[in-house]
Design goal:
Largest sheet: none
Helix content: 55-70%
Length: 149
């Protein structure tokens, strides 16, 4: 993680208006359990990323994991509302449910993403999803995606 932090901080130094650098910092800090730093980076990513669903979804994940369920639910409500008016990847809604610890709803939305052949599902191999890997529904979903394990 140290080399990744160095890399993304350098990206931010070179291109401070790029949301992606802050988005990745948020993930690194969140995976490490440094939620204050994750939230700080996530707020910048959301702002610079024009509140696009990937930035909001990830931010909602770490708001939920940090215990700020009020903010996570606000983000969830925003994404759900937007999904009724525009095309929003169900994956990012599921990610917020993950942060809130609502795994039944999370898998419901992952199933919707699977029905749409949502390429965002490939993120399921990333470390933020480690806590759900032992859930049989996770294994079943991966099989539906064509992965053996």
């Amino acid at each position: 993680f140290d080399s990744a932090l160095t890399c993304y901080n350098k990206i931010i130094q070179i291109e401070p208006a790029l949301a992606g650098g802050y988005h990745r910092l948020q993930d690194i800090y969140g995976i490490q359990g440094k939620y204050d730093l994750a939230i700080e980076a996530g707020e910048k990513a959301v702002k610079l990323g024009n509140e696009e669903p990937p930035f909001l979804g990830s931010f909602g994940l770490y708001c939920g994991r940090s215990g700020n369920t009020k903010r996570a639910n606000e983000i969830l409500d925003s994404l759900l509302d937007r999904s009724r008016k525009e095309s929003i990847s169900p994956f990012w809604i599921a990610v917020v449910y993950l942060g809130l610890g609502q795994t039944d709803k999370m898998f419901e939305w992952f199933d919707k993403a699977l029905e749409k052949h949502d390429s965002n599902l490939l993120y399921l191999f990333a470390p933020p999803f480690d806590p759900i890997r032992d859930d049989p529904r996770f294994t079943a979903m991966r099989k539906k995606m064509g992965f053996k394990k």
